[in-house]
Amino acid sequence: MVSFNKYLLLPLIISQALATSIFAAEEQSPLKSNTLPGEKPIPGGSPVSTCDVLEKQLLTIDLVELSPEQPQRGANLTVNAIGHLSADVAEGAYVDVDVRYGYIKLISQTYDLCSEVGEVDLECPLSKGEYKLTKTVEIPNEVPPGRYVVYARAYTKDDEFIACITATVVFTVDSLWKIIG
Ligand SMILES: *[C@@H]1O[C@H](CO)[C@@H](O)[C@H](O)[C@H]1NC(C)=O
């Protein structure tokens, strides 16, 4: 029933290496202010945060902006992101992605980072320095409404920590009513 193609998550995967982060929604403000310990909002007003912040990470994310601010099913979502890598990232880097839908663990999977960065026209090795990215993805209508919590943690081949990014996505039923109504 849940057609949760990995390319829905691709933006997040990419974000691990590239300082972009796509798959997120503007949260209700009570939730938004409720950042968990070890998490820190990224400038730009999106609900995307860094996590495990007490651990040194190779990627610093300076900005994440989403347009529209509230991602909707059946619509395009554009993400602008700026970040910088403090070291090169070579082949063999990977990203562990966990997605919870409500209380259900929907995805718990490891992806090859260098295979994924091709989606934003980059290739490994990623050299250290600044990255500015813009990426548009279409969010399918078929994504079930509800609350999604995503964690993505990226590491180099030698298990150096690249980044931890988390986002909470809330898809409401509103857009569904538009489609069937
Ligand atoms: C998303 O953007 C693409 C490329 O511009 C366009 O072809 C597509 O119709 C857009 N989708 C929606 C739902 O607006």
Automatic annotation (TrEMBL):
Matching entries from InterPro entries are given as: Ig_E-set, ML_dom, ML_PG-PI_TP, NPC2-like
Q: Where is the signal peptide?
A: 1-19
This protein is called Phosphatidylglycerol/phosphatidylinositol transfer protein
Q: Name one GO biological process term.
A: intracellular sterol transport
Q: What is the stated purpose of this protein?
A: Catalyzes the intermembrane transfer of phosphatidylglycerol and phosphatidylinositol.
One family from Pfam that matches here is: E1_DerP2_DerF2
- Describe its assembly: Monomer.
Does this entry carry the keyword Transport? yes
Q: Which intervals hold domain MD-2-related lipid-recognition?
A: 48-169
Q: Which UniProt keywords apply?
A: Lipid transport, Signal, Transport
Q: Where do the coiled-coil regions begin and end?
A: none
Top-level taxonomy? Eukaryota, Fungi, Dikarya, Ascomycota, Saccharomycotina
Q: Record keywords: Transport included?
A: yes
Q: Which protein family is named in the record?
A: Belongs to the NPC2 family.
An annotated Gene Ontology molecular function: sterol binding
